[in-house]
Amino acid sequence: MVVYSFYIFDRHAECIYKKKWTPRPSSTSSKPNQYDGLPEGVLHPKALSAEDDAKLIFGTIFSLRNMVRKLGGPDDNFETYRTGHYKLHYYETPTSLKFVMVTDTKTNNLRIVLHQIYVSLYVEYVVKNPLSPIEHPGGVGVDCEMFELGVEQFVNASLMT
């Protein structure tokens, strides 16, 4: 499995954390894009800034989540979205934090993995940290070295096999 990127959005639609991984070279013909580690043309035909990329991801999950709720009712949840090039996994916490992971298409549903990242890493290293702000106004992101290290180790150990 290949993990391309991971995002956390707060309840104000601000991207408070983003991490991108460059996939290992493989025997397939698609080469990684030098700007964001995704195969050429996966999320966008040309390189966007990191802020625009996060806005595009949030707009996608916001639209799909609302469409699922309108078509299926309030009890239905949006969990994954798959294209021919990537799969987007989504988990929303009771406090409206949104965890998004973009992976290759062969990956199974990662809702449980995103929940584990929330409970084991985000709550432990960000929420319980007295120096971390409760709100992240103006896009001030998560600035916790232990959280970043934990996400890196968790993804490398659990998902990138």
In brief:
Helices cover 34% and strands 17% of the residues. The chain is built from 3 helices and 5 strands. The model is unreliable at 29-35 (pLDDT under 50).
Walk me through the structure:
This protein is an alpha+beta fold and 161 residues long. The chain has three helices and five strands; from the N terminus they run E-E-H-E-E-E-H-H. The chain has a five-stranded antiparallel sheet, sandwiched between helices. Helix 2 packs antiparallel against helix 3. The longest helix is centred in the middle third of the chain and has 23 residues. The radius of gyration is 16 Å and the shape is globular. It starts with a strand and ends with a helix.
Any chance you could write out the topology, listing elements then pairs?
Layout lengths: L2 E7 L5 E6 L29 H23 L7 E3 L4 E6 L5 E6 L7 H17 L17 H15 L2
Antiparallel strand pairs: 1-2, 1-5, 3-4, 4-5
Characteristic key phrases:
161 residues; single chain; globular; alpha+beta
Per DSSP, the total helix count is: 3
Percent strand: 15-25%
The main β sheet shows up as:
5 strands, antiparallel
Averaging pLDDT over every residue, what do you get?
A: 82
